[in-house]
C-alpha cells in the first residue's frame, strides 16, 4: 500500500524560517516541504532559498502556497482553485505580533491531531492563540516551542545570513498558568504524537541547526532565559541604533546602569513565578539579578556584531515584538504585585520611536498612537 510522504508546512520566511527550510531541504531523506507566503510572489519559476555566512547553501524543490483574496492557493494554480487540504505539521516563524492573524487564515486546515511548532521571540503568544484562534481545548492542535540561538539576519526576500552557530532545542510547550497542554499533559512525549514525529526526526537530523528534542521543563528554562536577554538587548539596541556589542563597549556608564536596573526588575518577576507543576528548576538561583547580568553580558560578547530584529523592524517602519518581551514581563509583574517602571519606560520609548518611524516623524500623531497601543500593557 502506498503511503504519502510526511509533509511539513512552514509559514514565516524571515531569516529563521529561511535557515530552517533550507536545512530541512538539505536532508538526504527530506520531507515534503510547503512554503506559505502571505503575499503573491514576484519571482517566476522554481523558488529557491539561499543561506550565506558560515556556510553557503541554495535549495529548491519546494511546494508553494500564496494567500490571495482570503484563500490559500498553490503556485502555480488557477485562480478558482483554493487549497484546503489538511495540515498535519506547521512551523510558525512569523513575528509574535502577527501570529494570531496568520493562524486565523489556516485554522480550518488544522485539527486536534495537528502539531504546531512556534519558532518566535517572546512569551504570552500561546495564551492569545488559545483565546482567539483555538478556544475549544478539545479541538486544539498540539503546541511545541523551539528556542533558536543561531545568529541570523535577513538579506533578501528569500535569503538569509547565518552569522553564528547556536542551537535550536525544541519540545512540548509548557504553560505558566496550567500544567495541561491542549488535550494532553505538559510532560507528554511528543514522539507519541503521530503528526509530530516526522518533524522531530527531520529537525534533529538537519545540518547546521543543532536542533534537539528536550523536555517541556527545559523549554521553559530556556524560554525564560532568552526572554530576559531579548528584553534587554532588543529595545536598547533599537533605541540607541547600535549593534549588541556596543552596549558593553560604550564608555557611557549610564547604559550599563540601565541594563542593571532592567534586569533587577526582570529578576524579581521571574523569581516570583508561581509554577503550577513540580520542577527541578531553581528560580531563585537561576534568575538572580547577578546571574542574569552575567548571562546577558556573555551573550553580547559572543555576538558583538549582531543587529537585533527590533532595531531592524523600527528601521523598516514595522511593528515590533515589544509587547511579548518587556510588555509580557510588565503584565506578569502586575499580576504578581511587582512594578517594573524602568522596563515600562523603555517599552514606551520603543513604542514612541516605532510609531514616529511609521508616521514619518509626526510626533504628535505618534504619541497618540503610542499611548493608545500601550493602554493594555
Characterise the protein shown here:
There is one protein chain. This protein is of the alpha/beta class and 377 residues long. It has two domains: 7-214, Rossmann fold (3-Layer(aba) Sandwich); 219-360, N-(1-d-carboxylethyl)-l-norvaline Dehydrogenase, domain 2 (Orthogonal Bundle). It has 13 helices and 15 strands. Strands 6-5-2-1-7-8-9-12-15 form a nine-stranded mixed beta sheet, sandwiched between helices. Helix 3 links the parallel strand 8 and strand 9 (142-146). Helix 5 crosses helix 9 and helix 10 runs parallel beside helix 12. The longest helix is centred in the middle third of the chain and has 25 residues, at 216-240. The radius of gyration is 21 Å and the shape is globular. Mean pLDDT is 85; it is low at 179-185 and 363-377.
Q: What is the topological layout?
A:
Blueprint: E1 7-11, H1 15-25, E2 32-37, E3 48-53, E4 57-60, E5 63-68, E6 71-75, E7 89-92, H2 99-104, E8 115-118, H3 125-132, E9 142-146, E10 151-156, E11 159-164, E12 168-172, E13 180-181, E14 184-185, H4 197-205, E15 211-213, H5 216-240, H6 246-249, H7 253-271, H8 283-286, H9 289-302, H10 309-316, H11 326-336, H12 341-358, H13 363-374
Parallel strand pairs: 1-2, 1-7, 2-5, 3-11, 7-8, 8-9, 12-15
Antiparallel strand pairs: 3-4, 5-6, 9-12, 10-11, 13-14
Domain Ketopantoate reductase N-terminal: 8-173
Keywords: NADP, Oxidoreductase
EC number: 1.1.1.169
Amino acid at each position: 500500500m502506498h503511503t504519502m510522504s510526511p509533509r511539513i508546512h512552514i509559514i514565516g520566511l524571515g531569516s529563521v524560517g529561511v535557515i530552517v527550510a533550507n536545512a530541512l531541504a538539505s536532508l538526504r531523506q527530506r520531507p515534503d516541504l510547503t512554503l506559505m507566503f502571505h503575499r503573491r510572489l514576484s519571482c517566476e519559476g522554481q523558488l529557491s532559498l539561499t543561506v550565506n555566512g558560515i556556510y553557503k547553501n541554495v535549495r529548491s524543490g519546494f511546494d508553494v502556497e500564496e494567500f490571495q483574496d482570503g484563500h490559500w492557493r498553490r503556485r502555480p494554480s488557477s485562480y478558482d482553485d483554493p487549497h484546503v487540504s489538511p495540515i498535519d505539521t506547521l512551523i510558525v516563524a512569523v513575528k509574535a505580533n502577527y501570529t494570531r492573524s496568520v493562524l486565523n487564515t489556516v485554522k480550518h486546515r488544522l485539527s486536534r491531531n495537528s502539531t504546531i511548532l512556534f519558532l518566535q521571540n517572546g512569551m504570552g503568544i500561546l495564551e492569545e492563540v488559545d483565546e482567539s484562534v483555538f478556544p475549544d481545548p478539545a479541538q486544539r492542535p498540539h503546541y511545541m516551542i523551539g528556542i533558536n540561538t543561531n545568529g541570523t539576519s535577513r538579506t533578501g526576500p528569500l535569503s538569509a545570513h547565518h552569522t553564528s552557530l547556536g542551537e535550536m532545542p525544541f519540545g512540548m510547550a509548557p504553560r505558566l498558568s496550567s500544567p495541561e497542554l491542549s488535550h494532553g499533559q505538559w510532560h507528554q512525549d511528543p514522539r507519541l504524537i503521530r503528526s509530530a514525529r516526522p518533524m522531530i526526526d527531520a529537525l534533529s537530523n538537519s545540518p547546521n541547526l543543532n536542533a534537539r528534542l528536550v523536555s517541556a521543563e527545559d523549554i521553559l528554562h530556556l524560554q525564560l532565559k532568552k526572554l530576559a536577554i531579548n528584553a534587554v538587548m532588543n529595545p536598547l539596541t533599537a533605541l540607541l541604533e547600535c549593534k549588541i556589542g556596543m552596549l558593553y563597549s560604550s564608555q557611557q556608564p549610564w547604559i550599563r546602569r540601565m541594563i542593571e536596573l532592567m534586569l533587577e526588575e526582570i529578576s524579581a518577576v521571574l523569581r516570583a513565578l508561581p509554577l503550577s507543576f513540580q520542577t527541578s528548576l531553581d528560580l531563585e538561583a537561576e534568575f538572580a539579578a547577578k546571574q542574569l547580568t552575567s548571562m546577558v553580558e556573555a551573550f553580547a560578547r559572543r555576538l558583538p556584531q549582531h543587529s537585533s530584529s527590533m532595531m531592524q523592524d523600527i528601521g523598516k517602519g514595522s511593528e515590533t515584538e515589544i509587547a511579548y518581551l518587556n510588555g509580557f514581563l510588565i503584565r506578569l509583574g502586575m499580576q504578581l504585585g511587582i512594578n517594573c517602571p524602568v522596563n515600562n519606560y523603555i517599552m514606551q520609548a520603543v513604542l514612541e520611536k516605532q510609531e514616529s518611524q511609521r508616521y514619518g516623524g509626526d510626533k504628535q500623531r505618534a504619541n497618540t498612537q503610542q499611548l493608545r497601543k500601550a493602554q493594555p500593557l
